[in-house]
Write a structure and sequence with these properties.
About 20% of the residues lie in helices and about 30% in strands. It is α/β, with parallel strands linked by helices and about 160 residues long. The strands form 2 sheets. Strands 5-2-1-6-7-9-8 form a 7-stranded mixed sheet. The protein has a two-stranded antiparallel ribbon with strand order 3-4. The model has no long low-confidence stretch (mean pLDDT about 95).
Length: about 160
């Protein structure tokens, strides 16, 4: 079965109902197998190791792209938060912009890119200001203390 969906920063696949969903190609820049300080197991096991700013796929390959990048800029390199969620590079604006452009490149015309962002350290309006050429159609905010927003972009 050809994979129709690309998750370009899959991490430990936290929000998936089926962490082995056959429709999804799980990609991440890292593979991690650790036991966290509280004894929980952390497994980041992508189907393919890939940099979301330079994906190894042809143009217009996927019907849907999921983008849930690291959202922490200030986090200890060896902390459990960094291990679990990753860390944004210092040039996070370019990273977000380049990743969105790369996701759109591999997305088929009329396809949807789903972008998940947590506003713990960087507000969504700053993220949207970093993205050139694309704006979301709609989004949904959670009502928790550290707000997460889901946004949909269409190509």
């Amino acid at each position: 079965m050809k994979k129709r969906i690309l998750d370009m920063c899959c991490g430990s696949r936290m929000f998936y109902f089926d962490k082995q969903d056959p429709h999804v190609l799980f990609a991440d820049i890292r593979e991690v197998h650790e036991t966290l300080c509280d004894g929980r197991k952390l497994d980041i096991a992508p189907d393919i190791i890939a940099d979301c700013t330079n994906l190894p796929f042809e143009d217009e390959t996927f019907d849907m792209v999921v983008f849930d990048p690291p959202h922490l800029l200030k986090v200890g390199e060896h902390s459990w938060l960094c291990k679990k969620y990753g860390k944004l590079p210092e040039n996070w604006q370019a990273f977000i912009n380049d990743s969105i452009h790369e996701g759109m490149r591999v997305l088929k015309t009329n396809g949807t890119l789903i972008f998940k962002w947590n506003e713990n350290q960087i507000k969504v309006h700053d993220i949207l200001n970093a993205i050139t050429d694309y704006k979301p159609i709609f989004g949904h905010r959670t009502t928790s203390k550290n707000q997460t927003i889901w946004m949909a972009f269409i190509k």
